[in-house]
Amino acid sequence: MKRYAPILKSILLYALLTGATILMSFPLFWMISSSLKTVEETNSPGIVWIPDQPTLAAYTGIFQNENFLRSYFNSVFYVTLSLVGTLISIAAVAYAFSRVEWPGRNVVFFLMLSTMMIPPQALIVPQYVFFNKLDWIGTFNPLIIPGYFAGGAAMIFLLRQAMAQIPKELDESAFVDGANHIQIWWEIILPLVKAPLATVATFLFVGLWNSLLTPLIYLQTIDLYTLPVYVSTLYNINLTTQPWPTIMTSAVLTTVPLIIVFFLAQRYILESVVVSGLKG
Amino acid sequence: MLNNPYINVLIVAVLTVVFIISTSYGLGFLARAITRARGATPKQQESAFAGYFFAAPWIVGFVIFVIVPLSFSLYWSFTDYRIASGEPAAWKGIENYREIIFHDLGFRASLVNTLYLTVIGLPLQMGVALFLAVLLNQKMKGERLFRMAFYLPVILGFNTAVLLCWRLMLNTGTGIVNQIIRAISASVPPFGVLSRALILVQEVVTAFFLGMNTGKYNLLTKVLEAGFPADNRVPLWVQSPLWTKMSVILLMVWGCGTMMLIFLAGLNNIPKELHEAAEVDGATGWQKFWKISFPLLTPYIFYNLVVGLIGSLQIFEPIFVLYRDNEPIVSSTISMVYYLWETSFSHFEIGYGSAISWVILVIILIFTLLQFRLQDRWVTYDVY
């Protein structure tokens, strides 16, 4: 009996792991399955695991829905524009905190770390007044511009830690060859921290793509809505029958970029979560 | 051309970049001039220039988007400032704060809801996270694949679209979750009894917490009078005030991946020799877990507890997507940030909203300081 114990143990373990995986990914399966059903099937009291006759009606419908397509474009547009600026400015600030010795660095670094304590939501009310004064309500500006000022202390910290590990001799020999700081930053340091940059980019992408509160506050017309805001309007509590296949189709199309990015970057993400202790 | 929102924001973005680069040079030159006046070497001057040049985006952003708004909101929190009225703000003293802390039922509801999520939700979430971490720590083949599957919900978790899928799954009558509960209860009677017992416990606890909101416990007596749930009872996930918070907890448990990774790191840091020594002494796996792993994991449990608590103050998306427009239900589940959004942006009472922001800020500050205190314990990588 004792001989079989390890085998039994690993069978049990795999059974538990597989069971947990099924439970954890069930919503994803249900989302896809429901997107292929008819409205009647999604609202019926019986269980329809996989529709007998999958229909792509919801997909053809949503690709003709101008509002959905526009909100998809809006999301891609705002996330791209925001991501590029935020990533570059974070990379610059991380360089200052790791590769350059300057008077006041420790004070500024401490200040930056202490901003991690400030919940972003505590700033939304005064920032709203500020953007209102600038006449930026009803534009993409409030969602994009703040990021250009190296938004995200945790991300700066993550990148700084990576840059600080590169040996100092590299910059010094480059200085001797006549390179300046901007060249060293862009041509030597950044290529060496590609993996941490990918991690930061992924976290930023996920945060921006999922963001609901700020777009909800600032984008007040349907032609500016990003995906999360538009998709939330598809569910209307006043309807007796919800158009679930359409909602789930839009959900599938919304999550596809997230899943692709996650699979590409999972190696870096799963390690860095622990390093920085941050929420994804 | 300025009416096109895309071109408009592109122009503003370019102007912002120009602005940031000029402040970078400005701060850099200023730093160089000051260090030169102090008689630093040319190399030190160059470093001062580069340091401020590269750090300028953050320094300028910190002033524009953090310091200035925080100072203004601190001032407004003592006034009755309203953005729509156009009148200048009138000083009110600590009236806003007194109102929030002593009289505001919405704020009190958000506090009690956070308490509920902390007392009921976090232990469940951490239990599942720890369980998954222990499973993964057995170092089986394909561990990475399982780890990905358990972390994926964190990436998807707060996306509106995914939350709407949960809304579909949690439908009381036709949702798949209740369908499965009904099907298993029908074929395995003991499961049905167990599930109804859990329903009763859940409803009693929640009715008690809802009583704390209002000071009236008539819902609790109603639940107790109804007695043991009838045969066909299922959870009323997104339909009844008794279940709204439990639905949010379900989402929290589903998204426990971050906690799981933290626990996994904790388990990895436990020296192998400890387990080997215990094995020599004849300890069982159960004893090894409770006597060795668990005590060494307590710093990580503290960390997850504090971070989870701060997280539950800030929950917004699930409540918005699941319960918005559902007036009688939404108050049973609002978080502080949801309440802040509701009060600030439905009536644009900036003064009152600022005061709520500051209360949230102070609460989070307290928990963060607590966490930093404990960080000394949780960051230790050598146990000895």
Please outline the helices and strands.
The complex is a heterodimer of chains A (280) and B (384).
Chain A: H1 5-35, H2 39-43, H3 57-63, H4 66-99, H5 105-114, H6 124-133, H7 141-144, H8 153-164, H9 169-176, H10 181-192, H11 194-210, H12 213-218, H13 227-234, H14 244-276
Chain B: H1 5-37, H2 42-76, H3 95-103, H4 105-136, H5 143-156, H6 160-169, H7 176-187, H8 189-214, H9 218-226, H10 244-254, H11 257-268, H12 272-280, H13 285-313, H14 317-323, H15 327-330, H16 336-347, H17 350-378
Percent of residues in β-strands of chain B: under 5%
Low-confidence stretches of chain B: 380-384
What is the helix/strand order of chain A?
HHHHHHHHHHHHHH
**What's the CATH architecture of the largest domain in chain B?**
Orthogonal Bundle
Give me a quick take on this structure.
Chain A has 280 residues and is mainly alpha-helical. Chain A is built from 14 helices and no strands.
Description:
The complex is a heterodimer of chains A (280) and B (384). The mean pLDDT of chain A is 90. Chain A is mainly alpha-helical. The two termini of chain A are 45 Å apart. Helix content of chain A is 70%, strand content 0%. The longest helix of chain A is centred in the N-terminal third of the chain and has 34 residues. Chain B is mainly α and 384 residues long. Chain B has two domains: 72 residues; 216 residues, MetI-like fold (Orthogonal Bundle), CATH 1.10.3720. Helices cover 76% and strands 0% of the residues of chain B. Chain B is globular, with a radius of gyration of 27 Å. The chains are: A mainly alpha (280), B mainly alpha (384). The interface between A and B is large, with 108 and 106 residues.
